[in-house]
Amino acid sequence: MREYSKALEACQEATENDAEHAHAKEIAQTEGKIQQALFTQRNSESQDETLQRAMNDPEVAVSF
After folding, report:
1. Where is this region: Disordered (predicted)?
2. Is it the case that residue 64 has pLDDT exceeding 70?
3. How many domains does the chain have?
């Protein structure tokens, strides 16, 4: 999951650095593929798997 997030961040950075929009179509297509893969992965996981993934993510802070 973390790799998809990094890939989306890279697409955002590429968009910001593509001032002339020479690669806008390619960036958008890549971003769409990443989002589709992310949706497919999340759609097929159980609630327990989702909870476990969230618990393993250091950026998710849960306090009780």
Report:
1. 41-64
2. no
3. 1
**What is the span of the domain harbouring residue 6?**
2-56
The contacts of residue 55 (CB under 8 Å, 6+ apart) are: 62
Which 3-state string (H, E, C) describes the chain? CHHHHHHHHHHHHHHHHCCCCCCHHHHHHHHHHHHHHHHHHHHHCCHHHHHHHHHHCCCCCCCC
Contact (CB, 8 A) for 55 and 49: no
Within a domain: 11? yes
In a domain, 63, yes or no: no
Whole-prediction pTM: 0.69
Q: What are the tens digits of pLDDT across the range 7-18?
A: 999 999 999 999
9-44: pLDDT as tens digits? 999 999 999 999 999 999 999 999 999 998 888 888
